[in-house]
Specification:
The complex is a heterotetramer, with two copies of chain A and two copies of chain B. By secondary structure, chain A is an alpha/beta fold. Chain A contains eleven helices and 14 strands. In chain A, helix 9 links the parallel strand 13 and strand 14. In chain A, helix 1 runs parallel beside helix 6, helix 7 packs across helix 11 and helix 8 crosses helix 9. The longest helix of chain A has 15 residues. The N and C termini of chain A lie far apart (41 Å). The chains are: A alpha/beta, B alpha/beta. The structure holds thiamine diphosphate (TPP) (2 copies) and magnesium ion (MG) (2 copies).
């Protein structure tokens, strides 16, 4: 087991999969010569050359469509969105071409495409560059949606995503690229899509969180430990398909649940999780499932407002205390 | 408009093949329109009637391992590529033996067996897909070519520009064939485009552009043939504007298509029916006889009847099909 | 009070608002010469001329962006999406330009834009043309989202949308255009955005439904009446902002709730409503909030499969019986 | 490249105004870079240094009631339009007296008071907005003009094509000014576009296209002036390619910008600093003296210092601002 950054883990996953399968190629803005806007693809051009590391002009719909078309002919494209904010320009290709192709063709043409890049809140990038974009994807039948929270997951899930025969939306995080963690060096280290991880065991309350929010939740859990509240933390890892069994299992044990979500709260991932829990485990609940979400406003630039926009530790703490009261 | 002198001597085998294909498309669609009126086919049904020479001429310029991809008006392209009319009709009927087990319908015909990459419903969206197929061919070291058919209505969409730029920049073996039938639904081309000579868009990207008479199957075959050769040898894209006309309304829900164009215009254009023009040419050249024409007509009619019978006999997809193919396992 | 079709009611609303305010104009594909792909704009070109009824080429992003830019300069554009399926191509302009402009400019530039057109399931139009598109919008701060279920609402809500100083997403339905209903002729008949309607009073269970699903629910309610189950039906009318008070009020009375939604179920509107109800009215609930939603598959073409995809009366009935058991 | 002989006689007032504006932009941004390094400014900060002649020359060709709209690299365009540098700096600091109360930041400067329609962060997205502003002007019967600045990187985006087509088709008074600084982040233009002579895209749409030396403020003023006149009188769009260079990295996070271009290239281009070139020209023509230059330098420095002091003194937006302006009541 090596210790490496989240960024290095992604890079390693890409390298391993490209070495393993000549059909895998990487395409996107600045992925080659520039070594990636966030350096995730660093060194890949050098190792694999221009044929397989393809710098594109700025035309998200065009090059994502190229990814879909190439996948129909049997290649396995990994398309980088410089940040996921720009994926909105490629959304038609993702939703109407990639996600529906297998279905519309009655199974003749599947689309083994990965669209990856950083998403979610980033430091003071304001309304257009700091959005939780998963909401545009997890509703869509035909897509899989991954949000990897640790370096080890980044590697194991990206490798599974690349080997998956379906379009996978893989949303990383700018704010996690530099974190370090243990990453298995085994080139066959795969984490199956659709399996949640229990990040911390506990008995009093289940907290569901991923990405930056997971780390905030872990800190809060430590603090609450001192007060005798034992927090279990579940990281869904894949949002679609969602590992409902693990979530329900935990809630059936703790009888209480708080869902944390960085994005705006209305009709978000937290809504789905809360709705499912109350539907499936109503009698197990000692309190309503609470949601702590980003506020329902665009992301402001000013640092002080930005801090208010995304769930703070204080808000998470208060919500957990509330459901445990 | 550049036109091209049809090849000097018209080969009988070729003549028979082209005419049969055009007739098949025509009769197949006339029958589909009937079936639609009877409620056997639902949703949208966009007929290709009047434009048959484009699909047939273009496909005749290709090898069978080349690819085609099209919009929602794709029955003709799919048939020309060699799909089984029975399975297409079954698809229109929403039946299990349809190309896509009835899940795609008229706008989404796909046939992997003949390298037909589908009918696509979002205007402009399949232009990047064609580029992607071209990219894959080059990546895999192949020498196939991709034909991408689209309407004049797709030209104002951003993806037209993105695709042409990418194909020109990366030298991808794609032949873009704009079937300019002068209208996007009810919008005449001069109300949609600052540049109505669509082939001229090619210039800016430094690629070859050419206009061709879309009612002349041989002219199309020649013009596309040159583009396909360029694509195969030099891996460069071409933009072809095939000037044609749709004889029917935009879809079965716009049967007359009479608000935005005059009856006179439609009648005048019907005088240039590509099937009639080519039949006459074949007779004049002696490539085919009246008897040949009758035989073709008969064979095609039988094929279409058979397609309907096949579709009728095919079962509905079983309920579990709702959930299959959402993902490939 | 006149009786007219839903289509006529929309047409009337457009006419009245255009007569009232010269800044209002209509733009979109086939809205003029063709009188609208679904004839909602019939006769408007004749009455208002080419300056105010603007036929566009097919370039959703371009002309929606024109709408946003024109709105910044004080016009009040009504942009028609021929069907909402195509709005995905304009999503960047709606989400990143229209919805955020007021915020990013600190209130200097607001965007009084209406984007309207039919959405939701339509007869055998298959995967790309038969989508419940509201999911791409109601999550977005800065937008308002309306789904009008009756001819009267169509008129009153469209007029309010046009007079609103913010971008409003107004999604009609192909399958409702021909229905008839009472429509006030008063040119000042306005229904405020954000106010739900109780469509049927009842005491045993609250059903939340809109558009085609509302009518299905009403039929089911009649059937259940015979069995002595009294169904209250709430039509949210506006999805963002959601009239949570009316919904909660009803649930506090009936103690049971079923949410119906035509679109795919995972992370849809039903999820939000269910999550909110359990959060706010947990102790009032005698059963978990049930969701009846479209199945998690793309829309198939085949008629028999299509019928299975969207919530049937049988499924709705079963769900209501279940929560009332 | 077409270049234009600078107007024969250089007026002192004009010279002073142009030079002052260019200097103001330069010093303002140098200061902003300092403040960024000190952590007073967060997020992305894209400097316009090297390109000042474009914004200043173009704006000088306009009336004050004309409109401008730009991308995220818009400090220069906003300052040239006449915005208060103090309020811009306060915006960069995320403070309440900023143009947008600190909610927009560097990439989203808006100033309704001077008809500045904003800085926009999604590449290509503001091109349709400019067309919309042009549409509104025409609708309202006005005679204003819209300047739309964007980078070479926006040209491959679909909205470039959609906007040019719509403006040409509908004859909208928009002047599209592509600031071709040869790179989109690290992507040199020949790696992004099949046609690197960007002004030539105009041809296909039947509108006027022109290239201009983006380092020559007077040439830009003349070139844009002609386009503005056309737009004002005939309501027609123009595509201008201003050839320029960014002296700094793409943003403060790419300080060197050295992976994708050589140091030699950067040094060579810096020899054509638009401010130095224009200063020399002013001296040579006798329009300004060395003393004038000093005075300008001093005035600008004071203005920038004042802007910083103003920004420092301005309070953070109060918490309730998180929820205001989400909707207009
Ligand atoms: C993006 C998008 N916008 C609108 C539509 C609705 N629509 C379907 S076909 C069509 C006209 C297309 O005309 P053209 O490209 O000329 O093809 P033709 O129908 O003439 O073959 C329109 C507007 C669509 N399917 N996709
Ligand atoms: C749609 C979109 N894709 C990608 C980006 C990320 N991005 C920001 S600036 C930029 C380069 C733009 O280059 P250019 O248009 O030449 O402008 P310049 O920075 O040179 O002024 C990129 C790729 C973005 N903001 N928007
Ligand atoms: Mg057409
Ligand atoms: Mg540039």
């Amino acid at each position: 087991m090596a210790v490496m950054t989240y960024r290095e883990a992604l890079n390693l996953a890409l390298r391993e999969e490209m070495r393993r399968d000549p059909r895998v190629f990487v395409m996107g803005e600045e992925v080659g010569l520039y070594d990636g806007a966030y350096k995730v693809t660093q060194g890949l051009l050098k190792e694999f050359g221009e044929k397989r590391i393809v710098d594109t002009p700025i035309c998200e719909s065009g090059f994502t469509g190229i990814g879909v078309g190439a996948a129909m002919l049997g290649l396995r494209p990994v398309v980088e969105m410089m940040t996921f904010n720009f994926s909105i320009l490629a959304l038609d290709q993702i939703v109407n071409s990639a996600a529906k192709m297998c279905y519309m063709s009655g199974g003749q043409y599947n689309v083994p495409l990965v669209v990856r890049g950083p998403g979610g809140p980033a430091a003071q990038l304001a309304a257009q560059h700091s959005q939780s974009m998963e909401t545009y994807f997890y509703h869509v039948p035909g897509l899989k949606v991954v949000r990897p929270s640790t370096p080890g997951d980044a590697k194991g899930l990206l490798k599974s995503a690349i080997r998956d025969d379906n379009p996978v939306i893989f949303i990383e995080s700018e704010t996690l690229y530099a974190i370090k963690g243990e990453v298995p060096e085994d080139p066959e280290y795969l984490i199956p899509l659709g399996v949640a991880a229990v990040r911390r065991e506990g008995t009093d309350v289940t907290v569901i969180a991923y990405m930056g929010m997971l780390y905030r939740a872990l800190e809060v859990a430590e603090e609450l430990d001192k007060d005798g509240i034992s927090v279990e933390i579940v990281d869904p890892r894949t949002l679609r398909p969602m590992d409902t069994a693990t979530i329900l299992g935990s809630v059936r044990k703790t009888h209480r649940c708080v869902v944390i979500e960085a994005g705006a709260g209305f009709a978000g991932m937290g809504s789905e999780i809360a709705a499912t829990i109350q539907e499936e485990a109503f009698d197990d609940l000692d309190a309503p499932v609470a949601r702590v979400t980003g506020e329902n406003a665009p992301m402001p630039y000013a640092r002080n407002l930005e801090l208010l926009k995304t769930p703070s530790k204080a808000k998470i703490l208060a919500a957990i205390r509330r459901v445990c009261a | 408009m550049k036109t091209v002198a049809p090849s000097a001597r018209l080969d009988s085998e070729l003549a028979r093949r082209l005419l049969t294909q055009m007739q098949l498309i025509r009769r197949f669609e006339e029958k589909a329109a009937e079936m639609y009126a009877m409620g056997k086919i639902g949703g949208f049904l966009h007929l290709y009637i009047g434009q048959e020479a484009v699909a047939v001429g273009a496909t005749a310029a290709c090898r069978s391992d080349d690819y085609s991809v099209s919009s929602y008006r794709e029955h003709g392209h799919c048939l020309a590529k060699g799909s089984d009319p029975r399975r297409i009709m079954a698809e229109l009927f929403g039946r299990m033996d349809g190309l896509s087990k009835g899940k795609g319908g008229s706008m989404h015909l796909f046939d992997k067996g003949v390298n037909f990459l589908g009918g696509h419903g979002i205007v402009g969206a399949h232009l990047p897909l064609a580029a992607g197929a071209g990219f894959a061919i080059k990546y895999q070291g192949g020498d196939q070519v991709v034909l991408c058919y689209f309407g004049d209505g797709a030209v104002p969409e951003g993806e037209f520009h993105e695709s042409l730029n990418l194909c020109a920049l990366w030298k991808l073996p794609v032949v873009y064939i704009c079937e300019n039938n002068r209208y996007a639904m009810g919008t005449a081309i001069h109300r949609a485009l600052a540049q109505t000579e669509i082939w001229r868009f090619a210039e800016t990207y430094g690629i070859k552009g050419e206009a061709v008479d879309g009612m002349d199957v041989l002219a199309i075959r020649d013009c596309v043939g040159r583009a396909v050769e360029r694509a195969r040898r030099e891996k460069v894209p071409t933009l072809i504007e095939a000037r044609t006309y749709r004889f029917r309304g935009h879809s079965m829900r716009d049967p007359a298509g009479a608000i935005y164009r005059t009856k006179e215009e439609v009648e005048r254009e019907k005088q240039r029916d590509p099937i009639v023009l080519f039949s006459e040419r074949c007779l004049k050249d002696g490539a085919l006889t009246e008897a040949d024409l009758k035989l073709i007509e008969k064979a095609v009619a039988d094929q279409v009847d058979e397609a309907v019978a096949f579709a009728e006999a095919s079962p509905e997809p079983p309920p579990e099909e709702l959930f299959t193919d959402v993902y490939k396992d």
